[in-house]
């Protein structure tokens, strides 16, 4: 156990978050999503399971450590409801609230049609499957940049 890190974040997920770079996307999904077949196409290659964790909790935990990309209009993408792309289901509202709370303001979320979402998800860095039932509980989070850290070699390490 580590101080200050949400215990929902497993060692595997922490490693994934550390390995991701600016612009990489993380897929967080419900139990209905074809997680294993999508994950096979990702950089990480396998599903990271967060058993017993719903999507809003997982999103909040991830965003407690990972900044969202501020260089794009919508750093979060959701799967659109088939046949009614403007409709929002309960999990969309819950995740929007979790994202907004983590960032401290309203965050734009774009919607992709189901098969377009699957195609985009194959390009993600990793797939995180929660125990959420959804439906349509599929979200891509685009990683941003951590700012405000000192750079440099020994001077930065020594606090000079």
Outline of the structure:
This protein is an alpha/beta fold. Helices cover 32% and strands 17% of the residues.
Any idea what the radius of gyration is? 16 Å
Strand order of the largest sheet: 2-5-1-6-3-4
- Largest beta sheet, briefly? 6 strands, mixed
User: What string, H for helix and E for strand, traces the elements in order?
Assistant: HEHEHEHEHEEH
Tally of helical runs: 6
Q: Determine the structural class based on helices, strands and strand pairing.
A: alpha/beta
Total discrete domains: 1
Helical coverage, percent range: 25-40%
Which runs of at least 5 residues are low in confidence (pLDDT < 50)?
A: none
Highest-level CATH class = Alpha Beta
Beta fraction: 15-25%
Shape: globular
Mean pLDDT value? 94
**Overall CATH architecture:** 3-Layer(aba) Sandwich
- CATH fold-level label: RbsD-like fold
What's the CATH superfamily, by name?
Answer: RbsD-like domain
What does this structure look like?
This protein has 160 residues and is α/β, with parallel strands linked by helices. The protein has one domain (24-145): RbsD-like domain (RbsD-like fold, 3-Layer(aba) Sandwich), CATH 3.40.1650.10. The chain has helices at residues 11-19, 35-39, 55-63, 90-103, 114-122, 154-158, and strands spanning 25-29, 47-50, 76-79, 109-112, 126-130, 138-142. β3, α4 (90-103) and β4 (109-112) form a beta-alpha-beta unit. The longest helix is centred in the middle third of the chain and has 14 residues, at 90-103. It is globular and about 50 Å long. The two termini are 32 Å apart. The mean pLDDT is 94.
């Amino acid at each position: 156990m580590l101080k200050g890190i949400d215990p929902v974040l497993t060692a595997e997920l922490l490693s994934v978050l550390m390995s991701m770079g600016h612009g990489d996307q993380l897929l967080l999904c419900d139990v209905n999503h074809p997680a294993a077949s999508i994950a096979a196409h990702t950089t990480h290659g396998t599903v990271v399971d967060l058993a017993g964790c719903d999507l809003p909790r997982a999103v909040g935990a991830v965003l407690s450590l990972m900044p969202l990309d501020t260089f794009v209009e919508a750093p979060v993408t959701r799967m659109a409801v088939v046949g009614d792309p403007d409709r929002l289901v309960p999990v969309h509202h819950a995740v929007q609230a979790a994202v907004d709370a983590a960032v401290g303001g309203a965050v734009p979320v774009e919607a992709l049609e189901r098969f377009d979402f699957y195609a985009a998800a194959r390009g993600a860095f990793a797939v995180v499957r929660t125990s959420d039932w959804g439906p349509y509980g599929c979200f891509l989070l685009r990683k941003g940049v951590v700012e405000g850290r000192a750079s440099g070699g020994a001077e930065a390490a020594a606090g000079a």
